[in-house]
């Protein structure tokens, strides 16, 4: 496999934005639109992602191309859709971001909401190109929804005058808000330079308007912006999305492979809470394609898998693997030099996090679902000058409560667990109640922060 422009891997696409803007619904719509058009076109559910072969996407998009030649080199689109990973902060891989392109969903009636801005900040920091879906246009007063394959531009032209005027006013409002945070935006058909200007795509996940437009832009973007990044990279690049117990398989890890090839029997190294974990791939799994649903067994086994794909890996000792971190393959496990190198590499992200823990030993206890979300939360707490005494990844257990309870003597207000996007075990909750440890849970960072600051105020009084 050589690195050339006609040998590109699939771009990995993330959907992000404020809660309730319609991220899930848009993805459902993309899936269904294609499926409804006859055969499924090879669209397959992957682990943590949906795989759209280029022909299926093209079929939708060419309706809009108006005779223009659509000439794409990418083999498919891989759209990340694990519900637990809606927050982009959960996804990171070695320094860069796992995601090549993002769809930022904005509710056209609400404009840029806090989580949207949070997402933009991350996209900016990682220089990830994105397009904006200005969603829920059907909710504009008196909107006259057009068939889904009508280009949005024409759909807008067909609206009653006041609906069109309201639409234009809301687009301008959104453009102003984007300008305030440093982004030039244009409706996509007026955007002459996607390198400098972000495209706005009016959509409705309910009527389906704008969804083919979105697909067409997703296809066009990689060519323009990402060719270098998407050239097939023989080096392995893989991110652990989730750690899950599956009946019959034990603890497995869900991984998005964005570079290289991974094989059954490979020696892998992943980040563990207590240090690097080394193991051997017992099975490389993907779900069955739709038409093979009746085949016995839940998963399809593979000898090897090439990027980009979503995979489930079954391997010994994954219980303490940390989601949101990179996975490495050790070429020669007998080489102590390589093992050492991998250990350092794989734990890099984790080490930087530990420096956030307050040395004085006074502070709140912080728990999150993935390394990425923990990082984002710690960043937030640092900027809010809230000290942190301990961290953990995964659900809140009794031992976490015990650790947090040591603060009862040192600073009562810090005998608190801030739990982001994780569950709290029943026994842990009981112990916390008995001991007087407060547990705050939320799946939006600033909600946690609000709860905690309100609690601090209350204590001061
Ligand atoms: P998410 O939190 O961003 O994933 O948002 P969802 O996809 O769960 O959508 C939130 C709510 O908005 C649901 O009740 C959807 O049915 C609704 N919704 C999503 N997209 C649209 C849209 O384009 N038009 C209208 N009218 N409702 C929408
Ligand atoms: Mg959702």
Automatic annotation (TrEMBL):
It is found in: Cytoplasm. Residues 8-226 form the Tr-type G domain. It comes from the Eukaryota. Coiled coil: none annotated. Belongs to the TRAFAC class translation factor GTPase superfamily. Classic translation factor GTPase family. IF-2 subfamily. This is Eukaryotic translation initiation factor 5B. The chain holds residues 410 to 870 of 1012 of the full protein.
């Amino acid at each position: 496999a050589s690195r050339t422009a006609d040998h590109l891997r699939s771009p990995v696409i993330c959907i992000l934005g404020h809660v309730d803007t319609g991220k899930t619904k848009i993805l459902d719509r993309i899936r269904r639109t294609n499926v409804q058009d006859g055969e499924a076109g090879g669209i397959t559910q992957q682990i943590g992602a949906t795989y759209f072969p280029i022909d299926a996407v093209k079929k939708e998009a060419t309706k809009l191309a108006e005779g223009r030649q659509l000439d794409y080199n990418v083999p498919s689109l891989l759209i990340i859709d694990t519900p637990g990973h809606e927050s982009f902060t959960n996804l990171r891989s070695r320094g860069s971001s796992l995601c090549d392109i993002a769809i930022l969903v904005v509710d056209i009636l609400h404009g840029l909401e806090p989580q949207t801005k949070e997402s933009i900040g991350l996209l900016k920091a990682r220089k990830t190109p994105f397009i904006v879906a200005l969603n829920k246009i059907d909710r504009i007063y008196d909107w006259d929804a057009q068939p889904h394959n009508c280009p949005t531009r024409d759909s807008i032209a067909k609206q009653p005058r006041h609906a069109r005027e309201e639409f234009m006013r809301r687009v301008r409002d959104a453009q102003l808000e984007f300008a305030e945070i440093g982004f030039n935006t244009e409706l996509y058909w007026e955007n002459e330079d996607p390198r400098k200007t972000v495209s706005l795509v009016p959509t409705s996940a309910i009527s389906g308007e704008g969804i083919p437009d979105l697909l067409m832009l997703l296809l066009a973007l990689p060519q323009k912006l990402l060719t270098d990044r998407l050239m097939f990279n023989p080096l392995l690049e893989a991110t652990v999305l989730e750690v899950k117990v599956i009946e019959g398989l034990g603890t497995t890890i869900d991984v998005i492979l964005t570079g290289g090839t991974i094989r059954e029997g490979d020696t892998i190294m992943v980040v563990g809470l207590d240090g690097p974990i080394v193991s051997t791939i017992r099975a490389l799994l993907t779900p069955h394609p739709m038409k093979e649903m009746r085949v016995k067994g839940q998963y399809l086994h593979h000898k090897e898998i090439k990027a980009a794909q979503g995979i489930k890996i079954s391997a010994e000792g994954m219980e303490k693997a940390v989601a949101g971190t990179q996975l490495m393959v050790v070429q020669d496990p007998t080489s102590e030099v390589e093992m050492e190198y991998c250990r350092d590499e794989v734990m890099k992200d984790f080490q930087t996090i530990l420096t956030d823990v307050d040395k004085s030993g006074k502070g709140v206890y912080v728990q999150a679902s993935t390394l990425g979300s923990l990082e984002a939360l710690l960043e937030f707490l640092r900027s809010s000058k809230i000290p942190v005494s301990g961290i953990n990844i995964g659900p809140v257990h009794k031992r976490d409560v015990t650790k947090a309870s040591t603060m009862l003597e040192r600073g009562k207000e810090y005998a608190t667990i801030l739990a982001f996007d994780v569950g709290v075990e029943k026994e842990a909750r009981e112990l916390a109640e008995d001991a007087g440890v407060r547990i705050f849970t939320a799946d939006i960072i600033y909600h946690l922060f609000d709860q905690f600051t309100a609690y601090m105020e209350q204590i001061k009084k």
